[in-house]
Amino acid sequence: MSDGSISQDEIDALLAGVDMGGxxxxxxxxxxxxxxxxxxxxxxxxxxxxxxxKSNYDSMTGSGISVDxxxxxxxxxxxxxxxxxxxVVATVVDFSGGLSGDHIFLQSPELAGKLVSLVNNEPGAExxxxxxxxxxETISQHVGAELTEMEKNxxxxxxxxxxxxxxx
Length: 168
Description:
single chain, two-stranded antiparallel ribbon, 47% helix, flagellum
């Protein structure tokens, strides 16, 4: 990945390594879902970081950004891959320390381009290396809000690796 690109095999390996709630990489459909308590906890967590995330995006873009609540779903790795567009922009920010694991943000190239255009005040920005760096920084700000919220809730010692964004 030193040249800034990532192969489909590497994306598949990243996704295969993601713990999907104990569901593994089976392509069979599963009836497992989040419990109501788990959904409430996730909604509360993301609800608590919305003001910080919104403020960060507003500051970076100079625009008023709308931040909606999360959409929570459980699916297999194969189900996730089928739901993605042919091309995506992926930002990997792995956790370590008090909570370790893969942490990946996926967005459409169109959304990524709009965000870069707003941050750089450059309409129609290309998804080049500079744009990918901008996206890494925006996601790093989001992860910072997550880490702060974890600390507030007694989950301490969590660190993150530097964000790496690729367009695949």
